[in-house]
Design brief:
Blueprint: E1 11-15, E2 22-26, E3 32-36, E4 51-52, H1 58-68, H2 85-95, E5 103-104, H3 105-111, H4 119-127, E6 140-141, H5 154-163
Parallel strand pairs: 1-4, 5-6
Antiparallel strand pairs: 1-2, 2-3
Helix pairs in contact: 3-4
């Protein structure tokens, strides 16, 4: 493993979206390392020493715009997330969730071969997802069909699931 990764510069930009100003970070190669929404539980904020470089994120900005316009169903962006092997397995299961579908925490646990008792740990890994929207943790719901926690806020989860056709449009 490359031990210099922690000293590599972090690049960032913001992107306008229906969910608010999204904060994207990437490594020097342009590989996305996080996507946060305003007020996100555990979300990132710009730090001293980070380098603002909107050009590095042009493809991500275009794909996000297409997603929010209902024209893109699957992101094709390079990303990298650091986490425990357990979190990596949970995140890989999230990455395989198709647009417009939902699953439960228990189904994710089963998919990665974890025991039923690991549902809380699965929830913790999902809550620690550093790539909101891109890694669709908003597609995970409670076993009873309820809309459970979302680090970006339940209102944003509703908006994303409505965009994807899982929930009916809300009248204004």
């Amino acid at each position: 493993m490359n031990t210099s990764i922690s000293t590599a510069p972090i690049y960032w930009t913001t992107v306008h979206s229906p969910l608010g100003e999204l904060l994207l970070t990437a490594d020097p190669s342009g590989t996305l390392t996080s996507l946060s929404v305003p007020g996100q539980k555990g979300g990132r904020t710009v730090q001293d020493g980070w380098r603002h470089d909107p050009a590095l994120f042009r493809e991500a900005e275009e794909q996000l715009a297409a997603y929010f316009a209902g024209e893109l169903k699957e992101f094709r962006l390079r990303s990298r997330s650091e986490g425990t092997p357990f979190r990596q397995r949970v995140w890989a299961a999230l990455d395989s969730l198709p647009y417009g579908a939902t699953t439960t925490y228990g189904e994710i646990a089963a998919r990665i071969g974890a025991p039923r008792a690991a549902v809380r740990a699965v929830g913790g890994a999902i809550g620690a997802n550093p790539l909101l929207i891109l890694r669709p943790c908003h597609r995970v719901i409670g076993a009873d069909g309820s809309l459970t926690g979302y680090a970006g806020g339940l209102d944003r989860k509703v908006r994303l699931l409505t965009l994807e056709g899982v929930l009916p449009p809300v009248a204004d």
